[in-house]
Write a structure and sequence with these properties.
244 residues; alpha+beta; Endonuclease I-creI; 2 domains; 5-stranded antiparallel sheet; 26% strand
């Protein structure tokens, strides 16, 4: 599928759901695109733009059943940096995290980096497995209702944290899965020691027996791992009021 995005009768972007993704950020409280590209244009990435209707549609003939699991692969806040930011990668401010557990009824916490936050969402998925192995999920268009809450005076470490209801989930990124797993683990240790005021040794030990590490995605250039911490395991501990 190839989408052309218009604003005030001007083409401001395209999205091909197989070859590349694009985040079109807008200036805070304005409708002017920060980055506006004419089309067609050279693409500084592997692959080609495939015009609609130029390729044969290949329906799946096997009787497969894929349960729907609707979520936004991209969400976050504007980064405290100048210039263009690669829309394919996950970052400390969010971006293309692609955590399939970020579904209806869950909450993702981001550290605000600029005045006004500049929240954005996109890259909607109908279903995706952990890893997003072939490069894409089932990509499609979704409308979502999102509640934004500003938590003042709360401690958040480097990367976004997901509250899925039964679990807390920290995220780690890296050029290898070892590095991504290490960062997710360190984020989890930091979170547990601050939220429950326990030692780093105890936090590390509990992650070994009740922390589940999942490959978030291997398709975004920077690999992702998320650590799921079961809330039930910590229900008898006192919660730090400064924690999220």
């Amino acid at each position: 599928m190839l989408y052309q995005i218009h604003q005030n009768n001007e083409t401001i972007g395209w999205q091909h759901c197989v070859l590349f993704f694009a985040i079109l950020c807008t200036k805070l409280l304005q409708n002017t695109p920060i980055f506006s590209f004419p089309y067609p244009r050279p693409i500084n990435a592997p692959g080609l733009v495939t015009p609609v209707g130029s390729v044969e549609r290949m329906p799946i003939t096997e009787k497969l059943t894929i349960p729907l699991n609707l979520f936004f692969g991209v969400a976050g806040v504007l980064p405290a940096r100048n210039g263009k930011v690669h829309s394919l990668h996950p970052f400390d401010f969010g971006g293309n995290i692609d955590n399939k557990n970020f579904i209806k009824g869950t909450s993702m916490y981001y550290k605000v980096q600029v005045d006004g936050a500049g929240v954005y969402v996109g890259d909607s998925h109908f279903s995706q497995g952990d890893g997003e192995l072939s490069g894409t999920a089932i990509e499609g268009s979704l409308n979502g209702r999102i509640q934004i809450i500003l938590h003042k005076g709360k401690k958040l470490f480097k990367n976004p944290i997901l509250d899925s209801g039964e679990h807390w989930e920290t995220h780690g990124y890296g050029h290898t899965l070892d590095l991504a797993n290490r960062q997710a683990a360190l984020e989890a240790v930091d979170f547990l020691t601050h939220r429950f005021k326990i030692s780093r040794e105890l936090a590390y030990s509990t992650l070994s027996v009740k922390g589940d590490f999942h490959v978030t995605q291997v398709s975004n250039g920077i690999l992702g791992v998320h650590c799921k911490m079961l809330k039930e395991a910590y229900k008898n501990l006192e919660v730090n009021k400064e924690s999220i």
